[in-house]
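Title: Prediction job returns without error message
Component: structure pipeline
Severity: low
Priority: P3
Assignee: unassigned

Description:
Job completed but the reporter wants confirmation the result is attached to the right record. Sequence as submitted:
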Amino acid sequence: MNWEHARRLLHLRKSEAAKADRMGDLAPVGEVYGIARAASLCIASGKGGTGKSITAASLGAKFAREGRTLIVDADMGIGNAHILQGITPDRSFVELVAGTAAPREVIASCGDHLDLIAAGSGVSKMAELTPFEMHRIAEALEQVETEYEYLVVDSAAGVSNQTVTFAAASDACVVVTTPAVTAMTDAYAFIKVLLRCRSDAEPLLVVNRARSYEEACSVVKRMETVCRRFLDRAPRWIGWIPDDPEVICAVNARRAVVEHEPEAPAALALDHLSDVLLDELARVRSRGLGRSLMSRVVYSPKLA
């Protein structure tokens, strides 16, 4: 073991011990003295256009102020997480899956303590990865997740097996919806499929682009009513984000709104949401996104 490796191991153990101190009895002994794996959070939605990627970018920026953070763009083939970071990565999951790049070669720096693995853009075959290709992604994440405190998964919209697998493998999953009926309908569909895939999941609900607190409450009430009626359980509401023109300005500037206009109403709401989610992640036992993905991917080397 060289000095750099020993120093990194010591840092990871100290970081986990500090986290355990905050958690009290919730942290198992093995997690305190072993190498910590990043806590993972999936940002999902039933349909596109709900502000999922904008939410993921801002949460990634806020998490990075607390510890080294990796944004994983899981919208394979049509990812745009790199746009909101103002970068153009040379490599992405496309090269990783093809076997032409190693895990650390596809990681792009977005600033202090914040990195990104891009998903590639305009690569249709990435939308339907084989079990072997998913296993390769899982292995790559397992290799690098010990170097981070947080992983933020910017998921693809919809209920494909690939999308739901990422959500089910994450330690926590936030479902982003808007007051639009279509968005709520698709959010319900996503929650339904997620619970079928992982029965012990506890989806967290965020209402985006609400015109008022009352409108957000109305959306939550409708979602809870439908979910309890047909699923016998409901997502837990953790916050809402107001409809704010500064969000569009931030997107056009290729930045997260919490950095572009930190005093904007949406940015302040995302500040509060990040605090809530950091507390949430501190109370879960991190399973490791890569390891959890591998356990969910049915893969045989003989079929590769």
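Comment from assignee: result matches the submitted record. The longest strand covers residues 204-210.
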